[in-house]
Amino acid sequence: MATTTGVLPFVRTIDFSRNDFSNEFPKNLSLMSGLQYLKLDRTDLKEIPEELANLGKLEQLSLKNNSLEKLYGELTTLSNLRSLNIRKNNIKTSGVPHELFNLYELTTLDLSHNKLKDIPDGLEKAKQLLVLNLSNNQLLTIPPGLFINLTDLLFLDLSNNYLETLPPQTRRLTNLQTLILNNNPLELFQLRQLPSLQHLEVLQMRNTQRNLLNLPSSLDNLINLVELDISQNNLPKLPDVIYNLINLKRLNVSENEIKELSPNIEQLQKLETLNLSRNELTALPNTLCKLIKLRKLFVNENSLNFDGIPSGIGKLSSLEVFSAACNQLEMVPESLFRCGNLKKLNLSFNQLITLPDTIYLLGNDMDMLDLRNNPDLVMPAKPIEMQKGDGVEFYNIDFSLQNQLRLAGAQIPPSVASPNQNPKDAIARKMRLRRARANGDQDSAKILKGMKDIAEEKCNNENGDDAMVQSLQPKRWEETLEKPPLDYSEFFDEDDGHVEGLTIWEIENFLPNKIDEVTHGKFYEGDCYIVLKTFLQETQLSWEIYFWIGSMASLDKKACAAIHAVNLRNYLGARCRTVREEQGDESDEFLALFDNDIVYIEGEHTGTGFYTIENATHVTRLYIVHNDDTSLDLQPVKVDFSSLDIENVFLLDAGTKIFLWYGKKSKNTVKSKSRLMAEKIIKNERKNKAEIVMEVQNNESAEFLKILNVNDPTERPEVKTTPENWSRKSPRLYIIQLGLGYLEMPQVTIPQQKLVHTLLNSKNVYLLDCGPDLFVWFGKKSTRLVRAAAAKLSLELFNMIKRPSYSMITRVQEGTETQIFKSKFSGWDEVIAVDFTRTAQSVQRTGADLARWAKTQETKADLSSLFMPRQNPMTPLEAQQLSEDWNYDLDAMENFVLEGKKFIRLPEEELGIFYSGECYVFLCRYCIPIDDDEEEDHNAPIPEDEIQCVVYFWQGRDAGNMGWLTFTFTLQKKFKAMFGESLEVVRIHQQQENLKFMSHFKGKFIIKTGKRIDRKKDKNTKLPVEFYHLRQNGSALCSRLIQIKTDATLLNSAFCYILFVPFETEDDSESGIIYVWIGSKATEEDTKLIQEIAETKFNSPWYSMQVISEGEEPQNFFWVALGGKKPYDTDAEFMNYTRLFRCSNEKGYFTVAEKCSDFCQDDLADDDIMLLDNGEQVFLWLGSRCSEVEIKLAYKSAQVYIQHMRIKQPDRPRKLFLTLKNKESKRFTKCFHGWSHHIQHM
């Protein structure tokens, strides 16, 4: 047994996890007689070590993840053992001694993940057990007598066994708080014992064949239940009793067959975690948004779409995690991104097209945003404020006409491709220089005036002159020295000066270092100290600060004690003086600080910062350099030529020389990084007093070979061709903790097995065990006793575990860590082979493709529609041919109109007359011809597969959605029953009809305002004057006669109109006159069509009809009905140029799309911005809900469009106008047929 330091009996806690004890167990462990906590996880043990017999005070023992088959041996002698964890071993029932359960103190037993087929004998005697884990074994039954005496159990885990039932005695476990039954075939078990477990808080029944029948209805008696898991049970719905568990905080119902979630979910007001993944949900109830405490929501692998997620989900203010992967989401509600606490968002494996702009409200606090496998997803443009007036790029989009034409694939005109290069005008240049010089003089005058004002203000200051004189005085030499910035929060703790008592620091290497209370009053003659007394005086903290000077102290310690004492006073904001105390001449006030007389100790405890007594010694070491794609790792190997191999780089540290040896097959990146590593070692650790020597395989220097024990170069051995298998070993980081009479050495949890230097705390001391080497890291604020204990423990740990002969202990001070030590930590002063901090020009000279990199940074935008030619109108012949084809296929059309709350047959005389406040239904039966060589039998019935039924639902712009709802629940159901699923339903809105539907009316398509029964309601009400405008939009198929406002200014010489003027009669009989007004520039088709409409739809025995041409209007009735004769437009040239574009971020990036030529007023979307070109002006129409991003990008797009049209149509230059909703001018509204009021969207 190796010589010990005597510190082992004081160790109370130690963690030896992840060491290899398969061959030899540390013998010195038996000397830790005071050990209470021992972890031996993953140590490859096959039997219980005999050294445990001496650990009589051991209370907690963990032997997880080993290869133990039996527990016989020293365990039964550990009388103080309270917790035994033997999970994930190979323990069988016969390998558990019954004496183990006689340990009176044993309260926690974990036998999970073993090979138990039966309950071990004697387990029922362990009455003191509080925690019992028997999960992941092969248990078939539970003996009835097991739970008779185990009534104190608080935790019971029986999951992942083969249990089909539980004994009735389970109801005796009245103190049980956690019951886990997952993955057991308990289908026939009714769980009647459950309601008796009144203290139960956690119940897990995953995959226990639960259904709606074998789940007790009295489950809501478990009023303390906070967690419930009934996943993987094929439940068709969530049992109603669950909604009564009002204290539930965590609910897992994943992997069932739930199709709908009840609105009663709102009763679980305390719910924090809800898992609904892998069900058949198509929608979440809106009441889910009332769970204001919900923090985690999982709905993965369902059938949710955009409508399935409540729009009010943003009300979940506590939501931190939302996971909806593997659904059918194309969009998500905007309010989701208004959950202020959202940290993790998973929308992967969906059908996302874009995301709302509000995604950028989440900021940089997101821990995870997973959008993988959404192939059509385009992220919304992130607003980036750029300098105003930047004419080249805006929101990182190049709006230059040349670039946009190139992106659109359009031909770039020469005038754009090659800017106009006029010859330089010398006279103009002189004029510009003269103006610039004049402006420069003015600017200089302003600057001089500003300087004069500042000078006058300084003169008014009382100490202004003194300050000026002082600033001009030459500085003393010591004032010009650069003083290192010190953060005193690193040396003085937060509690220092804020808790009553005495605090003392010693000066070490120019800096203060706090000492332990047990050493207060003991001063080394060669040291200096700072003493702080904190006391309460009239409810306020007060301080006394002293600095004590030893008689043998060096000059640097004396000066630093005085300086740091003053800085301590400033740090605390104290008003007291700093008092100097010298050895042998202390004041009474200073001596009164200590309970006993102060003691002087010869010598010094800390070294001076001016000099070192011993010269630094270097141990020659050989390292193999590994690169795991993230950082270098240097592992020590034997200093011998036999350690070298051809595939790696080796670093030989010989103190004043660092040799780098390159194998023939070593990688260039490793070579480069190794050299940079060596340069850092020389610069930071050798004060540039060492040199790098490059060694190449088969051409090594004699000095290098001699260090590697090759004295004769001619007899050099061959280099290994096959390197040893290497993998980065997980280091073990121990923290040294000191208590009253004991030591603890637990391991620090390393997240994701990735060691980072942020785990190190300045107040502590750590041991880093890397296998061969052991490092001791001392924090700046660590105490002297902890440092001393760490030094001894490191020696014990080093000797306790078998290590190679070249292993060593390295002590590291915080702030002076070696590069070898830093290389053990990921991301700590990593060596990077390429410097990415250079300028763009220097990087470009290296051959890097900056253009390709910059292209990925551009914001996507699509402005191609702006450069497409305007759609040509359909010729009359084409329109006639289409109309004839579609009407030829039409076999029958039945017409209905909504009257009251039901649909009635539309009178034949009203066919083609639509009211803006009504809803209509048209059932069309089409006979689709099928190509067949056989002769047709005209008398045979038409086969069903040749009949196509289409229902058109027409909704006026003033009609509500009640008509559509009435249709879907009444008439549509009847049609479905008659024609089956092949029935096609088309919903169309006013002035947005498709061409096929319009063709069935053969141009006689009339839209009147109001409702069809308004004129029949009150006989005493005067009939209003009605004014109608006939117009085609891009095609004769799109001819409509629309009622407009009775205003003479709306007349236009290029169109035809109908004016209905009713007469007042004494007998209330209907009488009036119908004027058909023909504009002088109207087409023959319009003239003929409007007369046909007037004859068939307006003519009546009670009305007279007059066809009048422009200029032949009667003065009596015509102009009076229109409010008097007023000027009106005499041409409609704008019809040849009118275009409407929509600017939107709807797809996740900025797009400009053109509306068809048959656009209407309702195409103006509130959420977007529209561009309207009428051939003379370009209007930028702003919707009431458009974003600022859209406004800026649409403005730049309009400018590009105007530039483009100036080239395409130089004779028609456009001007840009801004138009707001409800403030449109006539130049804007005339482009829309039947312009009226805007619809108020609810």
TrEMBL record:
The keyword Repeat applies. Residues 242-351 form the Disease resistance R13L4/SHOC-2-like LRR domain. GO terms for cellular component: actin cytoskeleton; cytoplasm; nucleus. This is Protein flightless-1. It comes from the Eukaryota. One of its GO terms (biological process) is actin polymerization or depolymerization. It holds the Pfam family LRR_8. GO terms for molecular function: actin filament binding; phosphatidylinositol-4,5-bisphosphate binding. InterPro entries: ADF-H/Gelsolin-like_dom_sf (IPR029006), Gelsolin-like_dom (IPR007123), Leu-rich_rpt (IPR001611), Leu-rich_rpt_typical-subtyp (IPR003591), LRR_dom_sf (IPR032675), LRR_R13L4/SHOC2-like (IPR055414), Villin/Gelsolin (IPR007122). The keyword Repeat applies. Residues 513-591, 635-705, 751-821, 1153-1209 form the Gelsolin-like domain. It comes from Polypedilum vanderplanki. Keywords: Leucine-rich repeat, Repeat.
